[in-house]
Amino acid sequence: MSSARSDVNPEFCGHLRSYCGAAKSPSCTATSNNTDRVLTLSIKTMKKTMAKSRPTRSDIQRQAILDAASLLFIEKGFGGTNFNDIADAVGMTRTALYYYFRSKEAMLESLTTAVTKRAGDLIAEVIQQEDLSPDEALRQLILHHAGLVLQHPLQFRVAERSESSLPEELR
Predict the structure, then answer these.
(1) I need a surface site. Which of 60, 62, 64, 154 has the fewest CB within 10 A?
(2) Looking at 36-103, which runs of residues are DSSP E strands?
(3) Which helix (H) or strand (E) holds 5?
(4) In what order do the strands lie in the sheet with 2-5?
(5) How many angstroms separate the CA atoms of 115 and 149, rounded?
(6) Mean residue pLDDT across the chain
(7) Do 26 and 64 touch, CB atoms closer than 8 A?
(8) Per DSSP, what are the bridge partners of residue 9?
(9) Model pLDDT, residue 1
(10) What does the pLDDT look like over 151-160, one tens digit per residue?
(11) For residue 32, what is the DSSP state?
(12) Confidence class of residue 149 from pLDDT cuts 50, 70 and 90?
């Protein structure tokens, strides 16, 4: 599907390119000359992208389990929480819970891995900015980390309180 239109808003092209995976994607490009904007979009790519952005029922259930586990790990501690507690909190059987997670350790890993990886990525981003003074780099690290903690308070509390229960490579 290809069309040449002069009335296509350049800002819209930018948003669409971002949505489709930026300029690196050959199936979604926005180019311009003095009079025309050409927008080419692969419907197939758009459908795949949209499908990935919508959580499935399984994704929603998995997140509900992680939310319940977070609260229980904070309230009772990791050692004081058992699989039945988590199953009861989400209204499912222990057997059904095993469909989503093989153990409460797997839940703990899932809760902490994404947020600690993001913290590491933020550190790497600041370190790569060679033009920053040491004071400014430290300021940026603190601001980024504080923002991350504020966005994911439960995950950080779980990670902090249950660090000793994590596998050695994740501590």
Answers:
(1) 60
(2) 37-41
(3) strand 2-5
(4) 2-5, 37-41, 28-32
(5) 9
(6) 75
(7) no
(8) none
(9) 43
(10) 989 888 998 8
(11) E
(12) very high
Q: Read off the tokens for 21.
A: 């995976």
How far lies 25's CA from each of 10, 44, 71, 156, in Å?
Answer: 18, 13, 40, 35
Helix (H) or strand (E) holding 101, with range, is none
Residues contacting residue 17 through CB under 8 Å, at least 6 positions apart: 23, 25, 28, 29, 30
Residues of 86-122 as b/e, b for ≥16 C-beta within 10 angstroms?
Answer: bbebbebeeeebeebbeebeebbbbbbeebbeebeeb
What is the widest separation between alpha-carbon atoms in the chain?
67
Q: Which helix (H) or strand (E) holds 2?
A: strand 2-5
From CA 90, how far away is CA 69, in angstroms rounded? 9
| pLDDT tens-digit series, residues 1-47 | 444 434 434 444 444 344 333 333 333 333 333 223 323 333 343 44
Q: Residue for token digits 């499912």?
A: 92
Report yes or no: 119 and 148 within 8 Å, Cβ to Cβ.
yes
Cα–Cα distance for residue pair 123/102, rounded to 1 Å = 32
pLDDT of residue 52: 60
The mean pLDDT value for 93-104 works out to 95
